[in-house]
Task: structure prediction
Amino acid sequence: MPWQTTRFLIDLTNPQVMGIVNVTPDSFSDGGQHGSTLAALRHCEKLLKDGADILDIGGESTRPGSAPLSLEDELGRVLPLVREAVKLGAPISVDTYKPQVMQAVLDLGADIINDIWALRWTMPGLPGPLLTGVDVVSQHSNCGVCLMHMHQEPLTMQINPMEGDVVPQVLSFLKQTARHLRLQGIKKNQIVIDPGIGFGKTMAQNFTLLARQNELLAAGYPLLAGWSRKSSLSGFSPDAKTALDAQDRLIPSVAAALLAVERGASVVRVHDVQETVQALKVLNALTAQQKNSLN
Result:
């Protein structure tokens, strides 16, 4: 099923690589590296040259323990870049949960809203009627949406992570959230789901979601996997001194992306685009060879 977005109908027959563009001073992995609009735009161009199919722009860090960013600061970081990035000829996703930011970037021509809160967050206290993400997306009838599962909120999600069997809980949430969006007029082919690796889950639960990822496909929507540089990939030793820093998690990140695609993911969200694209070419070649041998 192709993914309908504002300007592009994205073919998900082959896995799509979504390149991460953080316009943040405090991201867990690359905070401050692309702080200016010009630096971030150059990074967008590099990711596209490296083979990214989609660019995902974010102005607020949602790492575990992070505090919320003001609306004004997020708009100030994101809008100048989106205004230029939509000219690059590739689908532009914006990683935000604030309806006001969604409205602004979609008005600029952004193609996808990638929301860790799955369109549930609202900002009370502003003048006028309460605006929700569902309201905004419903008014932009062709924009793509990625609905993510998150337990609690970034500030507290790893203090008290989920309990019990994570897979049916995540599946139920994603199915219900997507169903609610469909009832508001959003078409099925606009929706992609994300199990939210690292968002309120233990290491074991994250790997359970990967091992049993095929069960999540029962929701009936394409799946996005976001394993890139996550702390679960930092190592398995109880000695914290041996754990890999975020910037040193390239190899396990690529491995996790490949495993996710092999288990049915349609989109992988990554920092290391070039390496992931090269690895996926090997997997695609193997898949093509297997198909040919069956014919």
In short: The mean pLDDT is 91. The two ends are 24 Å apart (CA to CA). Residues 3-294 form a domain with the TIM Barrel fold (CATH 3.20.20.20). Residues 273-294 form the longest helix (22 residues).
